Give the backbone structure.
Amino acid sequence: MPNYDLVAVWEEHLRSEFLARDGDAATNTMVPDASVNHVPTMTGGLGRDELKRFYKYHFVNAHPPDIEIIPVSRTVETDTIVDEMVARFTHTCVIDHLLPGIPPTGRSVEIPVVVVAQFRDGKLANEHIYWDQASVLVQIGKLDPADLPIAGVEVARKVLDRTLPSNRLMAREWQGSEGKPI
């Protein structure tokens, strides 16, 4: 079985997407029948032609200019990489894959993102990208967190700083278990 450097392929894919903003270069790191699924919004594509279209018109050129990706953790297996990161940006443009149809609000956004990337024959075959859409909607002012078990920027900040308090969204319940036997 050939030994491929999946991390190098993955890093080249990310560079193509976020630094070079080159959809052709990004799809060149992928198998012909690759798939991408941004799970919360069901955006992405299947196969090279659909993915080239998606990357060119709805992804690589749709990122706000100030987007920053902060790595948190990475797990590498034989044919899979799982990346955990925080994405920071200002909502200064329509971001089709993240907030389809929502005009820019000018608000700052920080979201934890998990990508499960699977490889075949040394190339990217499948990406599932997960994030907390409720947190994004709270941060851009489209969802009121009052009386809902959701949060805004705190979600990303807790990923970056494990010492921040837990259980805020269940404060009454948490207080009710204080002093009970453990």
